[in-house]
Design brief:
Largest interface: A-D, 45 and 45 residues
Domain HD (chains A, B, C, D): 50-160
Shape of chain A: globular
Number of helices of chain A: 23
Largest sheet of chain A: 4 strands, mixed
Strand content of chain A: 5-15%
Structural class of chain A: alpha+beta
Oligomer: homotetramer
GO molecular function, one term (chains A, B, C, D): dGTPase activity
CATH architecture of the domain at 2-168 in chain A: Orthogonal Bundle
Pfam families (chains A, B, C, D): HD, HD_assoc_2
Organism (chains A, B, C, D): Halapricum salinum
Radius of gyration of chain A: 22 Å
Protein name (chains A, B, C, D): HD domain-containing protein
Chain lengths: 407, 407, 407, 407
């Protein structure tokens, strides 16, 4: 057994299959992949990695299994999946995940190929575990898969607390001790025991509050847009292949961006926080419906059209249309007065949170500061935005220059 | 200047009028009045007092004044009011406040008489402050009164964080540093600056989450019911007067309950946590409308009727009908896109929180464990409760015997 | 099983004999005995009680037993002793312990009479535990007694962290997680495993740093002196008996002091922090050797002599001669290169800490502010203090009026 | 003014020259230089960077200046120096500092060239500050230089607390709030005010405890040895120049190690934590005196001799001879009874800490696990170590395989 000191959970005991997996390259690689990607450009202390998060998820899975009374191979399989759940992440985690998916067809939780061969597969087999079944758990399949990836999974219990600890934003401080204690399986569903409507709500609320302030902060989104743009060029104009990209870590990607002439500008800007600004920042009401459903190629076409209309290099315009909000956790289940209910049935807060997610949604157009006025005006026209619900002018006139601005 | 170490705010600097007020008996008395009263019977570490809370409120007021650029006598008056804002509390703070009000006509924020004479009045005058105007601020009157008592007051910013620190329940962990920085005065109203809808929401959510888990936990409510009952008897059957009661501290009251024969049973039960149990625990839908509006005498009459119907001593039946929920904070104001809006207009969460408060509301009937079945049955009949929405049977069959039960 | 939320250890699981003991009066009484007594007059947030501390000690004992692989009745006995280890404390814990000992012959860890009869004895017997053997563990007797009371006991692991949490002074923040993991039994001795010289040193250092700043802060010592004086008068001039005193809690004692005419002055002064000041504050070098060894009666005689010499009422002079420092922890044992060594042999720090304790030692003479000059001058003469090493004049001239002064 | 959220100090307000410096490349580059280098291989959560530390040092400098009453250009110069104090660091901070010094003659605090030209120089000049005088402060020169680099500098106040926060090791948790409040200038010396002997001691103790457990943990030292060895080869066998190396960040260096054939093995081993083991671990008594004084070339010669004697590739043997311990803080000054004294005169602890540093000192010889026995035996002979005081056999037989082993 090894005991590892963690800034969030204090001591984490690692043993069994997890101990053998710990020193494999796929897991150690996560030391070089930041948990929150470009969010560190807003919150400078947020430099934690997927490695320590993976240890935390393993730890909480282990405690949940104990409280649930699950033992033996079944438990060992969950522990392996918990520790390995993030090995499929590319550089900067979610920041370039869509791009990797477009080129390789793999999201980060599709790890059958990654753990189905090599040293990880070997270790799993030595411990009598089938790599495919572990990969299934990582994808959230099966009853126990709910613990690893689901509405009440230990993944979010770790990341909310860890992100709060490292950003300094207190909203993520959920009561994970209570959550792992109160999990139960009822008819194959993972639920929270009697008396925990609040506990379930607090999990949702934590994410709802962290979202605009941390995960979707506009500065992080701008940098993410620039990172994606740079990475696309890297694939397009250098000999880096999508599969190489998928297995890079943060260090590889940033150095690659800096090293190639075609991407050096992005590399420099991202390294030294010389970022584009918001040319447009629009609420959902301002956005024509078909734009909301635009695919990657359509977005690229719009970017070029805006660039032409404003007379700037297309490389200097980024259109950022987030997906429609979804809140997986609203379907989490709790026991109320002896029967299992979906949280959304039980909690009036939950419908409200859904609506609040829509309120917080923003379309962004980003460009270098010296051309952002021109780009903003052109974008409003090209995209057919409703000027009333577009905050572009406010941004320009500095109305937003509050605490929120830097962060 | 004195510098006082505080477990929540680290160092608190006290100077000027506050320094002179610090050593007065009305303020030092708050050392003996617990912040959360009977909540310590649920959360054993929650033994913090109104004294340290008052220092915290003074500290946050001081910082808010700095950020708002308010100086001179005006600021000094607010600092005095912040430090003194709780001197009107009777023993066990809010727990017996209604009872004291019925007998003396004073709530805890009515302090004109308490600070209008004696050493406090003297010190205020020495510093050129009018005691009456300070008392006005304590009552929330006037523009600057909003800082001391209002939707965005520093009182709640301190107590949420402090109660979280001492109970161990993380939900109250708001970002008070941000809140005090973002306060502005616009046309006489205290508002939060641009970009702080979330900040305002987080304040509401913190209280909404702390409420059922901490402030209105059923065990704390049962003990509070017993404390009120005991205190009523103390007034009725001993020579303790309402005005003496109002100026007692927790120690005085508990020892008084223990010392008088008529109340010794309550004194012992409260001292050693030998509490009544829930005989009925009913949602609002289960409760006839007129019962919701019952006054103190009507509640007493119901208690006696239930006692008679179940054949137990009336002293052993407590009917606890909380007031209808209200959420003062929903009318707090934020600047959005340059104009002041009420939070309830801007935030879909806020309406939901209102509704959630109603969901959490519970009527309780409490009695000693050995008679709680009989009392529960009788109460359902006497009060005309709708059995479907009454959780009495669940309580009895132990369905609630989860984590929540002890706490 | 009950799960109790604690602000230090998060969730504490209570089961078995501990669960039955929890609701007994001797244990619940500890809710009304503060952990640090008069220290709250220096650190206003330090209002934690012996009750929550007892739960914490039980929790750490439980974890230590798990790591040590001790199970069954033996473990259950240690858990009972851990939970009960402080039931022998009188009001204000250590503050009046000497006084109670002089009158009853009992220190707080002598609990054979307290748990040998009544409900506690009954519960222990029901669980097959011999009350006398549990009381032996509380006194630190036997191999397992070292866990409850010894150089490496879980008692100090809890109180250091808890006192740091509540005072806000960070020095007590030891790594208790590591300490309980690294305990081993070797030949009947409780020791720390290989690689933990530092861990053992940190425990000593924590206490050495907390001592002058928290436990022996001069303001706490002054108030303690006043509390003892008041309590002595209570025994001398009222019908309160020593055995009644021993079973009082803080509330009882403070109200008793306030209620009796002979002690009302002390009651008021202690309630409202109207304290004596230091008239003398002398290093050990300044103190004649026989004074260091003076017993209670001799100290009383000196007080009267000083009072006479300065022309003040003897009630207004308190002479405070602390015992010579001792550091039990220096004999704690660690494994180094495979063999058990005493920490003091292994660690150069330890001898230094001993010496440092002597450096920090101070004799104090306390009196009301308006007579403290006169009393100080008289005390220097009467006690034969070496003026060079006496800080009396510095105190008077306000040289010490720094951060330290209030606290 | 910008307000930046920090996980240690909560909100940091940046204005004036600091605000303009914030967005320069030399400062932003620190985002890519980890604070603790290879220590993250022991404590996975320790991924904080020199950037956030620099903000923290700026913040504490700012507060110290406020408490000291220093204003105007003088203060602005200190603020600039505090923010810039680490721009001279090469990749992995102190880990390859000696190597860079050997090749460039620059330590990290020699920044005259770095801030004397380019955008930083320009910004300083715009604010009326002389870059050379700012660089002097960074080097600790002049009265105010003591605040930036000296026995009581704000640098160590930040890093102790920050390293504790991120590693999870509590020992660094000093009371920085008190330290910055109690600083005074007396006759040009920065000292702590009356009543702070303990405060000064706590600063030393914190570092003394953090040192073996964090900063000089053997695993971090092994990885550091490998990093230096790899980096030397990078300079020797590729076209990377010393000046390029000095300006690299962590990402550049690790990717460079991985990319060049001559260093790819080190790159891989460091990336995936496939580290050498201790072949020898010897106390100072075991080491011949001339070896303690060996320079870089002599150490290289020993390594080759050990390699030859054990029949392994010289690349696989690392000899790690730390410098003799020094404790700068022991000469920090405190006011005692009105006069300035050096802490080492006043505190018996301080001499002990010096000695303790010698106790903790270890010489290490590292090699891959499969040859570490052979290498260890050869090293004992070649270096003439006293076998009695060499822990080599213990390490091999696993006596140290405790908690300490992984960490």
């Amino acid at each position: 057994m090894k005991t590892i000191k963690d800034s969030v959970h204090d001591y984490i005991e690692v043993e069994g299959v997890a101990l053998d997996l710990l020193d494999t390259a796929p897991l150690q690689r996560l030391r070089h992949i930041s948990q929150l990607g470009t969010v560190t450009l807003v919150y400078p202390s947020a430099n934690h990695t997927r490695f320590e998060h993976s240890l935390g998820v393993y730890h909480l899975a282990n405690r949940a299994l104990g409280h649930l009374g699950i033992e033996g191979q079944q438990a060992e399989r969950v522990r392996a999946a918990a520790l390995l759940h993030d090995v499929g992440h590319g550089p900067y985690s979610h920041n370039v995940e869509d791009l990797i998916y477009r080129h390789t067809g793999k999201y980060h939780d599709e790890v059958h190929d990654l753990i189905g061969e090599g040293e990880v597969a070997g270790i799993l087999s030595e411990h009598g575990l089938n790599p495919d079944r572990v990969a299934d758990l990582v994808a959230g399949d099966g009853e126990l898969g709910q613990l690893v990836s689901g509405e009440l999974d230990v993944d979010r219990m770790d990341y909310l607390v860890r992100d709060a600890h490292h950003t300094g934003v207190p909203y993520g401080t959920i009561d994970h001790g209570r959550l792992v204690r109160e999990l139960r399986f009822v008819d194959g569903d993972l639920v929270l025991d009697e008396g925990n409507v609040q506990t379930a709500e607090s999990l949702l609320l934590a994410r709802a509050l962290m979202n605009p302030v941390v995960y979707s902060h506009h500065v992080a989104r701008i940098a993410k847009g620039m990172l994606r743009r740079g990475t696309e060029r890297l694939l397009a104009e250098t000999d880096v292949t999508p599969n190489e990209l998928r297995r890079m870590d943060d260090k590889d990607l940033l150095v690659a961006l800096r090293s190639h002439e075609a991407t050096a500008g992005y590399g420099r800007r991202l390294s030294y926080r010389d970022l584009f600004k918001r040319a447009v920042w629009a609420e959902m009401e301002a956005v024509p419906e078909d734009l909301l459903a635009a695919d990657h190629d359509e977005v690229r076409a719009f970017e070029e059209e805006i660039a032409t209309a404003s007379g700037v290099d297309p490389e200097l315009v980024i259109l950022d249309v987030p997906e429609e909000p979804e809140m997986k956790e609203t379907s989490s289940r709790v026991i109320v007065a002896g029967e299992v209910r979906r949280l959304e049935e039980q909690s009036t807060l939950v419908q409200a949170l859904r609506a609040a997610q829509y309120d917080q949604w923003r379309l962004g157009v980003y460009a270098p500061e010296d051309v952002s006025d021109r780009v903003g005006d052109a974008a409003v026209r090209v995209l057919g935005l409703d000027v009333e619900d577009t905050l572009v002018s406010d941004v320009r006139t500095g109305v937003h220059a509050t605490l929120d601005e830097f962060q």
